[in-house]
Amino acid sequence: MKNRPVAERVKDFEEVPLGYSVEEALAEARRCLQCKDPKCVKGCPVGIDIPAFIKLIASGKRDLALAKIKESNSLPAVCGRVCPQEEQCELKCILNAKKAPIAIGSLERFAAEGEEKQPSPPVPLSQRVRGKKVAVIGSGPAGLTCAGDLAKLGYQVTVFESLHVIGGVLQYGIPEFRLPKKIVDLEVEYVKSLGVQIVSDHLVDDLNELLNDYQAVFIGSGAGLPNFLGIPGENLPGVYSANEFLFRVNMMKAYKFPEYLTPVKIGKRVAVIGAGNVAMDSARVSLRLGAEEALIVYRRSRGEMPARREEIVRCEEEGVKFHLLTAPIALNPDQSGWVKEMECEKMELGEPDQSGRRRPIAVPQSEFKLPIDTVIVAIGNSPNPLIPHRNQELRVNERGGVIINDAQSTSLPGVFAGGDIVRGSATVIS
């Protein structure tokens, strides 16, 4: 898929990948071998019938291809853009053995983009299950998916969202140039068309009170608690969590200052700690906000970086610099108390840890200093603690994740949970 030129895209927040033309999509779809035992389907976390939707695209039936995808996934326009297909469905494609795999994610995006021009009619619903009402807490990927699936089964579903916009992390966590908010709004409208009621500006705290009005509750409140390093100086002015930084940009429209009077104070030299997609997003946003230099500081090597390969490449294309095998050990202030310097030490890789990646080990007497004036900590998030803290009978694990059984039931009867509140921060499709 073609991207916008680097010199053009670094000056704005418009989407970077251009999407397929009809001709490009047909050519790509016709490469599919239509395997009798499609390994790609096994690589998809939600089991989309990938050969079927690709065959429909190849036949020029874009609308039917989208309907086929939506049998398993209510958020195809989002997933086609931000999911790591190269580690999932595309990794399993048999064409990997000889040449490039089918660009499944790009074709999913193409199918979904047809809906922008001609919205699909509401899906026919099964007969309503009278008196069966379900409350869903959170309107992120888990909440919207759960609500959509339950509505298709005939349940009366109400989604409660604490923020003023719908979409959860899709709205506040991913920059416009990677996931345009009009796309998120389009997916939300589809879920609403299934009969789902969505209530914004409503923070749920008491689950037992909610169970007085609903037969079941699904908690999908996500992983909104930022993780920190615990190093000296991490609370200095000029140090952001990636959550706060991206929230200010995406939700408070900091990138549209002065049209929106909510600027983000950004320095000339920004250091982003971490190497996941959120870290890449933060570095690219920093450059677009006016930083002269953006650095990725990561304690492992390039091979261990968890971000998508295409996001790493786009970062490099846009001028982000990488300090690999480097770990921050302290942040120092200037005379005014603002962060001015990052103390680091060099690392080397040892044996694999529980994640399967080689464990970083400090190199003795390798300390050095980096001059910086903004730091963004992007080392992951933990499950949102608000609901567990207010409902002590809800069992959680040592990471704060809600504990569920195989049926996704929690320790509270009638209360279920899924998504990042259970597993911690993960991909949209997971």
Regions with pLDDT < 50 over 5+ consecutive residues?
A: none
What is the 3D shape?
globular
Count of helical regions: 17
Q: What structural class results from the helix and strand content?
A: alpha/beta
Mean pLDDT: 93
Number of strands: 16
Helix residue percentage: 25-40%
Biggest sheet layout: 5 strands, parallel
Q: How large, in whole angstroms, is the Cα Rg?
A: 22 Å
β-strand percent reads 15-25%
- End-to-end distance: 24 Å
Annotation keywords:
alpha/beta, 430 residues, five-stranded parallel sheet, globular, 16 strands, 31% helix, 17 helices
Question: If you had to describe this structure to a student in words, what would you say it looks like?
Answer:
By secondary structure, the chain is α/β, with parallel strands linked by helices. It contains 17 helices and 16 strands. α14 links the parallel β7 and β8.
TL;DR?
This protein is an alpha/beta fold. It has helices spanning 6-9, 22-29, 39-43, 50-58, 62-70, 76-82, 89-92, 104-117, 141-152, 169-172, 181-193, 207-211, 242-250, 277-288, 309-317, 386-390, 420-423, and strands at residues 133-137, 156-160, 197-199, 216-219, 225-226, 239-241, 269-273, 293-297, 321-323, 326-333, 339-352, 358-362, 368-371, 374-377, 381-382, 415-417.
